[in-house]
Structure formats: C-alpha cells, structure tokens
Amino acid sequence: MSPEMIKFRRNNRSMSSDRGDPTTNNRGRPLLIHRKFSNDFSGTSYQAPNRRRESFGYQSNTYRKKYDDLTLDKIGVFKPLLKSCAGFWVEVGHDISQRDIYTTPIEVENTASDRLWYNDLFSEEEHKNYIGKDKDLGVFILSIMVTEKGDHNNVNITALLRTKRHDIRRTFIVKKDKKFSRHVLKLMDVNISCKKLKCIHNLSIVGKLRKFERKLLIMQYKIGVLYCREGQTTEEEMFSNEHGSPAFNKFLRILGDKIDLLDWEEYRAGLDVKHNSTGEHSIYTQWRDYEIMYHVATMLPYNSYLPQQLDRKRHLGNDIVLIIFKEGNLPYVPNRIASEFNQVIIVVQPVVYKGDTFYRISCGSKFTVHRFGPELPGDNVIYPHGELARDFIIAKAINGERAAYGGKDFVNKIVRTRQLLLETIEDEY
User: Fold this and answer.
1) pLDDT tens by residue, 196-211
2) Which residues of 314-352 are buried (b: 16+ CB within 10 A; e: fewer)?
3) Measured between alpha carbons, how far is residue 426 from residues 27, 161, 199, 411, 421 in Å?
4) CB of 160 within 8 A of CB of 213?
5) Distance (Å, whole) CA 377 – CA 362
6) Distance in angstroms (rounded) separating the CA atoms of residues 346 and 392
7) Cross-strand pairs, 384
8) Is the pLDDT of residue 75 over 90?
C-alpha cells in the first residue's frame, strides 16, 4: 500500500468511533432515554421513557374487517379538501380500496443521503484524501479507498467525491499506477478539469471531513401545524385560534408527545427553551431515524391585540411543510397563508363514524416541488386514527420537505453552503 495512505489501527483508533457506545446511536448522537412529557393537554408533566405515546399499532383484524368496505360516500357528502389555486398543484390520489391502506408501503424517499458515508466507510480505514479545484465547480475533495486487491495490475476502489452541488459515490476497478487518482476522478461521471490534485497527508483532515458530512446531514425536521376551525377562511382567523378543539388535541397525540420546552435538551426547532418566550409546551417525536418538532400554532404565544399573530406566523410561515387540521366542509386554498417558505400543504380533516375517528388527507405543493410519496389514496379512502395515519402523515411531510429541496431557491442555498464549507477546508490545507 502506498505510504500516502492514511492509516489506522483497528485495536488503537487514532480517531474515536461512535460505534459500540451504548449511549449513542449509529450516528454518534445521544440516545433519547428519558424525556419530560405531558400525558394530556392540561400541562401536567412527568418523567417518561423515550417515545411514550398511546399504543396504537395498525388496527386489529377485527377492526379492519369492520371497516373493510367503508368508503367516504357511505358516511356523508364531502367537498374536496383542497381547491386549486395559482402557484400550487394539488395531488390526485390513486385508486386503492380501504383495506389496501393497511398493506401499502410507507417509506421515506432518498434515504441514501441519510447515511454518513465517509464516517462509516472511510474514516477508520486506510484511504487517501485529495483536494482539487475546478473552474466551474470550484473546490472539490476526493476520498479514495482500496477495498480489495485485484490481480497484480488492478485494484478495487471505493471513491467519494464532494463538490458544491452534491456527493458522488462509486465503486470500480482501476489500474494500479502512480496516477490512479486521476483515473478515479475521470470515472466519477463529472466533467472536472483540474491541473493538480493535492494529496493531504495531515490526519486532521479526517475530522474536518466527518464534520462536513454531519453538517449536511438532515435528520431533524420542523413542521408547522395550524388549526382551522369550521367556517374559517383567512390566515388571521386561523392564527387567532387561542385553543384547539378536542378533535384537534386528539390529532396532536398521534403526531407526537407534548413536551415542556423549559430546559428541553433535544432538537428545539428555534423554540425558546430558556425563558418560555415561545410558549411552555410543544409537540415532539422520534419517528424511525428522524426527530421532529412541530410548531403548533395554538401552543405558541397568543396576543389579543395583534390579529396577525406575528409570533405564531414567524414560526409556521418559515416551515417548509405545513399541516392544516381543517374542520368543516369548506375546501382549503393552499395559498391562503402568505409565505415564501411554505412549499407543501397537507390538509387533514377529521371524520367520525360510529364513534370512531378517521382522517381525510390531501396534499398541495408549489409548482417547484416535484411529485413525492407516499401516494395519496383516492378521495373515498380515509385513515383510521392511530399509527397508520401517523406514519402516512409524517412520511408525507418528510418526503415533501426533501422534494422541496430540489427547488431552485433551496438548491442555490445548499450549493452556497457546501461551497463555503469546502473552501474552508481547502484554506486549512
């Protein structure tokens, strides 16, 4: 192996590993062991283990059979949840039956970006790091690791290329010669013109690259939740709801846990955890590998002298995804809230049938947001209150935000951030 390779001993790591630590998860963040949760919506708090919620589960077979043939038109006459408007497209559901919603996959999309590739595959193995500069792409960093020795002329390579636009990961076989790094660069499917690739021997770059990767990893989401009382049509009316209805509070319980904000130590999504200036409580959850803090309008400060309720809109108006809990039968207009940041609007309407609560769900997105899953069912299908509705809504919200990142404004911001981080590393070496 070339003396340029960065070397680590497995029994004596020169860098600490996140793996094997019982107090951390596989991304190095502390496990969320105990939280301050509230067991109702009156504000009484208590200590509870992680992710304490009602035990929903996907409904039992008896429950499913009871409502297998249930369709919305058997309950009543309902208008569409969303009304078409300028700047937004409204998703049209696909044709599935009520029973099919229990078996339709609910997945997060683009999960390849959720992995710490350099940290997990490169950082503790022998590898090389190169810094180069392209006229159009600017600074880029290439990491190369020999994963397996082939014959005497070839080697198996795993490579990770970071540019201001994105990361590219490839595995292939290259000839073993002095310029194999340039061969690797040509095989990365990127048009890069670089006269000099600088191999970095300083081991401190490993820590810099791990930090670079962690800063760009998005596993925490802030989602707005707005209560729309029956008959309300303006944002002033909706933001001025001082309290939610029992049906709204019931819905919040499937989204997550009510937490005390004071001294909250986990993801806070811009909420004040020192002085309660943004309210005393919020809704928080862990879902699969993700953390979500909801900006619930009725839990944010209410000011009777300001009909615009700017303290509330300041948070919800800056959320990419907004959930509207809509009571009544008036269609919701997606551009009703004046905001440049709200890209995806998920509308949820409660429907009660024979004492059981169900939810109609619809979704509208700005034209810059491409289609994303999980796909909505047809207009006649409703989700029962519980884990299934929770999983569908959260997956839809996360995928919606990720789809919004592909819009021009978000892409430009991400490119500028990546460029600055890469240039900062280059300046140090």
Assistant:
1) 899 999 999 999 999 9
2) ebbbebbbbbbbbbeeebbbbebbebebbbbbbbbbbbe
3) 25, 14, 12, 22, 9
4) no
5) 9
6) 11
7) 358
8) no
